[in-house]
Amino acid sequence: MVQRFNPAVLTVGIIGGSIVGCTLAAELARLGCRVRLFERSGEALKDRGAGIGVPESVMATFATQGLIDASLPHFPAPAFLRIWKTPAAPRFGRLAWTQPAKLAALNWGALYRNLRARVPPGVYQIRQQVVALTESVPGEVLLDFADGHQEAFDLVICADGYASLGRQTLFPEVQLNYAGYVLWRGSLPEAALDESPPLEVGIRAVGYPGGHGIFYFVPGADDSVRPGDRLVNWGVYVQIPAAELPAFMTDREGRRHEASLPPGMMPPATERALKDRLAQHFPDYYTRILETSEQTYAYAIFDCQVPAYRRGRICLAGDAGAYARPHTGAGALKGIADAVALGKALAEAGDLEEALGRWDAERTAANNELVRFGNQLGEAFVTRIPDWSTMDAAAMEAWFSAAVTIPSEYLLARA
Ligand SMILES: Cc1cc2nc3c(=O)[nH]c(=O)nc-3n(C[C@H](O)[C@H](O)[C@H](O)COP(=O)(O)OP(=O)(O)OC[C@H]3O[C@@H](n4cnc5c(N)ncnc54)[C@H](O)[C@@H]3O)c2cc1C
Question: Which of 10, 21, 40, 279 could make an S-S bridge to 17, C-beta 3.0–4.6 Å?
Fold first, then answer.
């Protein structure tokens, strides 16, 4: 009989208590590891209030594995309806292509709460910022905290997001690449819409010279999926040259942000300029959604690949590893998959080195490929988007197949 390694002997430190940190904590505690999770922010539960699109099949698998509730409120999104404003279709735009997809639209906060609820009591430590991590003795990782204390672990996993301290520590040569555009986001209660039917079923993707915007329903307050209670979630990709990014990322109080302008902090002049720029290109129905949304916010879009997911006893997971552009619709579930795969490798391997080695090779290859997929999508749908106004479904499919060559189960089923 094959002798299996017993993960229960491990002490594990997790940096970051968002989607991926919580999944890691739940999975590794399930194996019997002695887990501690450190989250720098103060709130035990937080809500970004944003909608996300995730692959339906992966969500179903995670529900089967008991990671999320099967009843997690969401809407199936079986297609992207690709639209362009034309003189003949000023209000809703002309439908160029109904591109099949297998996505589910849900609230980021509902997914987070589901995962957070699976972290065993006593594991999640709030207001604990890690400021340094070192493996000075092989097999022992020391974490230094902002309050001056230090803790030692057999294994540390960095789930500390796109600007990861862990990634900077392991691979200081890896830089985040600015994609040349931002995602301007907002939401609107369904009750504020002129009419709901134009947004029923699927994700509306409105193309324009310079990028595109997506619009779809997500569950509303208290996770309600009832018509009338839903929330319109939207995001528009807008090109902002790198030289102009610092000014764009300066908030209404004059503070400069690296990568995102929080809700309500965009200067009125910046927001007005975005609305005016897009009103020229967006069908009236969608222009009105942008006009009437309040507390809008923006993210600069970055990406990076990584040479590996571990060095010694320090691992990366989620956005802390390879960082994909949001077009992939895969950020959240890619990170959850990192955590599930690590649990599986630890449960099945003969020893820790074998488990980490196998997991590293698998996640590095899969996630770097996802970054390349996101970059192809970004070029196709933002920086080199063609004029869809006269393209029919066959032309759209031919263009997409030539522009996006990396196959993916994550996002887009080919027509
Ligand atoms: C604009 C945009 C749109 C997106 N759309 C989608 C989508 O449609 N579908 C999808 O699947 N994904 C989407 N994503 C991606 C998704 O939100 C992320 O992939 C996911 O939240 C990553 O989770 P994470 O746990 O790796 O990192 P994060 O959610 O970034 O969390 C990192 C955590 O670590 C903590 N932390 C950081 N440093 C330290 C430290 N030194 N010490 C202690 N704690 C620390 C932070 O406070 C934070 O809580 C989108 C992302 C963006 C930016």
Answer: 21
